[in-house]
Design goal:
441 residues, alpha/beta, Four Helix Bundle (Hemerythrin (Met), subunit A), 434 Repressor (Amino-terminal Domain), 3 domains, 8-stranded mixed β-sheet, 9% strand, flat, disordered C terminus
């Protein structure tokens, strides 16, 4: 995510950290580098110009503090301006009404149907009764796709054979009122802003349904084309917000940085993966941290807390303290890591460490292979790996489809990890997993 712009800012920050003082000369030099980084990332020209001017003005008026290095002060100025550009005051939606309606609009291929299911999954987990409405009668397979997604997340989907989006939505609204639905989500057809007939249709839908929220589902990878579409749709039906999709595949970040400044439309949610829980609240600071390569420890902790239960943490700490941590426990940790996402993504969320590992690529299959090796062991071997001799290794290799060298490597690493845990045990109270998690909250 945002690899291109993050690398450019990483270079800029390395140069900044070496500054002995802030002068007009180095302010001009750094400003030129920032402008290049933003334009290469496909940030709107006017947004880039305003960003750089604001950074220059703030830097020139900065009072150098003895306790902070000049370079770090300059970095802080850039960070604050990035948050401001993204739109620091945007986010929450009002769900206080008896029936809350959300309409999703946008161009074809932006991910509206998938986003509709992600929103439904999110609200369902907040104990809201949700109804999805399949109002895209133009794209072949759109209705069936939403029905399939609804079934997978156990959310009702309204559809009929009328082939009339307006009638479908009106009937769905009637049903929602009789079924005590809390939130109704309309998945409308993708349409181009130059298609006047389709734009009239979406205006009619808004007039009849009076949705509380109208979200433009924006594909972040389409760059400035998406920005112009948002402006046209906003002028036509007054958007209440935008949902940025495919952010995990956006290496530039220009669209995310430009959207609020150019259109005035606030970003409400961001799509960070194809999974049902891959929709996050928009947070300007967290997104600025990712763009600038600062990591995102808040999201990392949230991922951990979703997967790892507090009682599991307590059990793990107990096993480490009495030195009974075995390969069964190691397999559990691997399984939890796989649930959290890719290693590359997790490493990228760790401040400081993320920069050092950026040039490295992680083979995500390694966790799968390690788990396969452990699964091929007997319960006794997983509990007492020291009994695994040459003949046992050959059997495990055959069962897992790996070779004896990999099994030796795994056993060696596991032994080293146990030794490290034993050393950490002396400082258990200091390095308690629960305390580490709480310190980031």
């Amino acid at each position: 995510m945002f690899d291109g712009i993050s690398k450019r800012f990483d270079t800029i920050f390395r140069n900044l950290r070496g500054l002995g003082k802030i002068t007009d000369q180095n302010i001009d030099h750094i400003s030129r580098e920032i402008r290049k980084a933003l334009l290469e990332a496909d940030v709107n020209f006017l947004v880039a110009k305003e960003f750089v001017n604001n950074v220059k003005i703030s830097a020139q008026g900065t009072k150098v503090l003895k306790s902070i290095k000049p370079g770090e002060q300059f970095i802080n100025i850039i960070h604050k301006e990035m948050i401001k550009t993204l739109g620091e005051d945007s986010s929450s939606i009002d769900l206080s009404s008896k029936l809350n309606s959300i309409m999703l609009i946008g161009t074809q291929g932006s991910g509206k149907t998938t986003t509709a299911s992600k929103l439904a999954f999110r609200f369902k987990n907040q104990e809201k009764k949700v109804l999805l409405v399949a109002a895209d009668t133009y794209r072949p397979g759109a209705v069936n796709q939403l029905k399939t997604l609804g079934k997978q997340i156990n959310v009702d989907v309204y559809h009929d054979d009328s082939n009339d989006p307006l009638l479908i939505c009106k009937n769905a609204l009637k049903k929602a009122k009789t079924k005590s639905v809390d939130i109704i989500i309309y998945d409308t057809a993708g349409r181009l802003n130059v298609d006047s007939e389709m734009m009239i249709e979406i205006q009619s839908l808004k007039e009849v349904l009076s949705p509380k929220e109208i979200f433009y589902v924006a594909d972040s990878m389409t760059g400035q084309d998406m920005i112009s579409s948002v402006k046209t749709f906003d002028e036509a039906i007054q958007l209440t917000g935008a949902i940025m999709t495919k952010l995990d595949g956006d290496s530039r970040g220009g669209a995310a940085l430009s959207l609020r400044s150019v259109t005035g439309v606030p970003i409400k949610f961001v799509g960070v993966s194809e999974k049902y829980d891959g929709l996050e609240d928009f947070n300007a600071k967290q997104l600025a941290d990712r763009i600038l390569g600062f990591g995102d420890v808040v999201s990392l902790v949230e991922k951990v807390e979703k997967i790892v239960k507090e009682e599991d943490v307590a059990s793990l700490e107990k096993k480490i303290s009495n030195n009974s941590f075995d390969l069964n426990d190691f397999r559990t940790q691997i399984h939890q890591m796989k649930k959290m996402g890719s290693m590359t993504e997790l490493i990228g969320m760790i401040p400081g460490i993320s920069r050092k590992f950026k040039s490295l690529s992680f083979d995500e299959n390694q966790l799968v292979w390690t788990e396969a090796i452990i699964n091929s062991m007997t319960p006794d071997e997983r509990t007492r790996p020291e009994i695994i001799n040459t003949s046992r290794k050959k059997r495990i290799a055959l069962g897992s489809g790996r070779n004896v060298f990999e099994i030796n490597s795994l056993l060696k690493k596991f032994l080293e990890m146990k030794k490290m845990m034993k050393k950490m045990n002396a400082n258990q109270s200091k390095f308690s997993t629960k305390k580490l998690l709480k310190s980031f909250r």
